[in-house]
């Protein structure tokens, strides 16, 4: 595996030896820590004698744990992304993710493999503040997109943007859907698949209904209807996830329904909360979560938590709307409003934290 000779770092060309020396030259702490971490990873990736690269997983396939990354698999994963987005040597790509995550590592590997010009910026909530020139490609987490939109940062400087690592907020999705100059994709992947293996376009007049598989990816379902994925040249065989999906008959795409471990059994009926949450958001225009609480008759009953800044939210009106299209067992038995639903660093709604608040403050 040789790095592409067209590789550039912040507009400057480096060969392999120069990159290794650059890392050593910066060992005097004269550069910011975040940049030294990137240079250290480049050094580690290019020096195969260092052995496998350790990476911690997020828990998509079970409990979070340690995963050993193979350089050949990283190389093959990078090639799939380069081909999908038609990135060519010399294209400028923005690196604004922490290198400690697989998504950050893979941005660097794509640049090394594809001969791209890797533009470095300090990972922050607003990575576009210092970006003055256009870039062909960038990857962000939902928090970065949310903050960029809130502060009016110019997303049109990015030709193609992928968003992953968490749930994109309802308001952000509405704005992104209307973008014309930037093509925006929601990504689907995990550490075990070396970042994304499927992408769903969410901007423009013809968004994708489901996630499209990258080249060489095959999928199936286990007995729980959870996704099983095999990425040729990347994974060491099939990987079983806890993601409930609906696979297109062609086998080339799928719709994500929710997490198996979030399913609520109410009166013997299994409800996938994420599936209903999307319908409810579209109806009431607010972010929300469906949780459960014990019920003597049903076993568990549905509780709807709505994020709203309204002092007197129209709860009765919301329930009337929901009754018009939800089945009786899908209608929440109680509605709770909050100024803000707790979220983790990836902007994913924190169900456990929200459940704790509901249990302690609203009972």
Tell me what the structure shows.
- This protein has 363 residues and is of the alpha/beta class.
- The protein has two domains: 8-215, 3-Layer(aba) Sandwich (Rossmann fold), CATH 3.40.50; 263-361, 2-Layer Sandwich (GMP Synthetase, Chain A, domain 3), CATH 3.30.300.30.
- It has nine helices and 20 strands.
- The protein has helices spanning 16-25, 33-46, 71-84, 102-114, 142-150, 170-177, 273-284, 315-323, 351-361; strands spanning 8-9, 12-13, 53-56, 66-69, 92-95, 117-120, 135-140, 158-163, 183-190, 195-201, 211-213, 217-221, 226-231, 239-247, 253-259, 264-266, 269-271, 288-295, 299-307, 334-338.
- The strands form four sheets. A 13-stranded mixed sheet has the order 2-1-6-5-7-8-9-10-11-15-14-13-12.
- The radius of gyration is 22 Å and the shape is globular.
By CATH, the topology of the largest domain is Rossmann fold
CATH class of the largest domain: Alpha Beta
What would you call the structural class? Answer: alpha/beta
What fraction of residues sit in β-strands? 25-35%
Annotated CATH architecture of the largest domain:
3-Layer(aba) Sandwich
| Helicity level | 25-40%
State the strand order across the main sheet. Answer: 2-1-6-5-7-8-9-10-11-15-14-13-12
Q: What characteristic shape results from the CA principal axes?
A: globular
What is the makeup of the main sheet?
13 strands, mixed
First-to-last CA distance: 60 Å
Mean pLDDT: 91
Number of helices: 9
Task: Provide the gyration radius in Å.
Answer: 22 Å
Total domain modules: 2
Poorly predicted residue ranges: none
* Secondary-structure element string: EEHHEEHEHEEHEHEEEEEEEEEHEEHEH
Number of strands: 20
């Amino acid at each position: 595996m040789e790095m592409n000779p067209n590789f550039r770092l912040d507009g400057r060309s480096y060969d392999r030896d120069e990159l290794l020396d650059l890392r050593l030259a910066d060992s005097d702490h004269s550069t910011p820590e975040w940049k030294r971490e990137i240079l250290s990873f480049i050094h580690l990736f290019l020096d195969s004698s260092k052995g496998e690269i350790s990476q911690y997983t997020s828990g998509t396939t079970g409990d979070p744990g340690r995963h050993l990354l193979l350089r050949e698999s990283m190389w093959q994963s990078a090639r799939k992304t380069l081909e999908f987005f038609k990135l060519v040597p010399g294209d400028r790509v923005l690196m604004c993710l922490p290198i400690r995550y697989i998504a950050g590592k893979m941005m660097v590997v794509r640049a090394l493999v594809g001969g791209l010009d890797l533009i470095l910026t300090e990972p922050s909530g607003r990575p576009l503040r210092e970006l003055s020139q256009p870039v062909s490609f960038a990857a962000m987490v939902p928090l970065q997109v949310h903050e960029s939109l809130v502060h009016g940062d110019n997303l049109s400087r990015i030709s193609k943007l992928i968003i992953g690592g968490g749930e994109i907020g309802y308001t952000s999705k509405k704005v992104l859907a209307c973008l014309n100059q930037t093509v925006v994709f929601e990504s689907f992947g995990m550490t075990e698949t070396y970042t994304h293996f499927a992408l769903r376009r969410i901007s423009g007049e013809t968004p994708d209904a489901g996630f499209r598989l990258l080249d060489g990816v095959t999928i199936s379902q286990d007995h729980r209807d959870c996704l099983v994925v095999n990425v040729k040249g990347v994974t060491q065989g099939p990987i079983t996830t806890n993601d409930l999906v609906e696979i297109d008959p062609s086998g080339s795409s799928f719709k994500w329904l929710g997490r198996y471990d979030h399913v609520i059994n109410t009166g013997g009926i299994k409800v996938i909360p994420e599936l209903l949450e999307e319908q409810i958001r579209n109806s009431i225009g607010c972010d929300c979560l469906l949780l459960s609480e014990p019920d003597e008759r049903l076993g568990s009953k549905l509780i709807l938590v709505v994020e709203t800044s309204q002092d007197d939210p129209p709860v009765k009106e919301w329930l009337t709307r929901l009754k018009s299209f939800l089945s009786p067992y899908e209608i929440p038995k109680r509605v709770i409003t909050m100024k803000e639903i707790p979220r983790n660093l990836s902007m994913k709604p924190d169900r456990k934290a929200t459940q704790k608040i509901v249990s302690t403050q609203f009972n």
